[in-house]
Amino acid sequence: MRNYKGRIHSFESFGTLDGPGIRFVVFLQGCPLHCKFCHNPDTWPSNGGEEYTAGGVFDKVMRCRGYIATGGVTLSGGEPLLQAGFCEALLELFKTAGIHTAIDTSGAIPLHKSQRAIDLADMLLLDIKSPISCVCSELTGQSNENALATLEYCESVGKRVWLRHVVVPGITYDDEALKAVGELSRQYSCVEKLELLRYHKLGASKWEGLGIPDPLAETPALSAEEFARAKEIVNSLH
Question: Is the pTM here over 0.90, yes or no?
Fold first, then answer.
């Protein structure tokens, strides 16, 4: 278990936005989606980042145990469940140590590959790109079938879930699309929280630096007024 190897993009030792409390966030390398609004396209290649053993990551986290005592560890990415076996090894180590764990995932990985890691985690932060399949495909290159199946599975086993959704002008900033997010959220008792996230331009320089054409180069960041309105629409149904 300690010797299981995987690829890591980066670490954040004092995260406050990726689950409850103060958390150590492990960003795994690789993602099968190419989201148009991605602010970390450098996480996409599976052969990028740096190789670590599960034991090496565990030891690094445990040096910060005092800081995350009321929070825990979040496996993020990229798409962490693309390296499902590595996630399992990490989650087993943290479980043995009594550390609370979360997986920040798009749900893009089929359940037959991701289920064991999901079972080991204390909760999921599930990023629903869009509950409308054609919109999800336009945004990411993949339908939402696996994400919705992941949510259904979490409901069936009572897995704690926080839903996340990025609001993008001209795409997901749309009354019907936002209503669909609110309606999806309220259908599931496992969903404790729905977090809307504002589309921003902070990742634009990474697209440029990697020489990848930015499909949203002409799309403005979501304004505070638009974000407040999006919240009102979703909360009216959530």
Answer: yes
pLDDT confidence of residue 202? 83
The values of phi and psi at residue 11, to 5°, are -130, 150
Q: Are 199 and 169 in contact (CB under 8 A)?
A: yes
pLDDT at 238: 58
Q: Which three-class secondary structure state does DSSP give residue 188?
A: coil
Question: How remote is the C-alpha of 236 from its chain's centroid?
Answer: 24
Q: Which amino acid is at 210?
A: L
- Domains of the chain, with CATH numbers? 5-165+190-214 (3.20.20.70)
Q: Are strands 101-105 and 123-127 parallel, antiparallel or unpaired?
A: parallel
Cα 21 to Cα 68, 114, 171: the distances in Å are 7, 25, 32
Mean pLDDT of 14-37: 95
Q: Could you give the CA distance from residue 34 to residue 135 in angstroms, rounded to a whole number?
A: 14
Query: What pLDDT shows up at residue 236?
Result: 85
Q: Tell me how far apart the terminal alpha carbons of the chain are, to the nearest angstrom.
A: 41
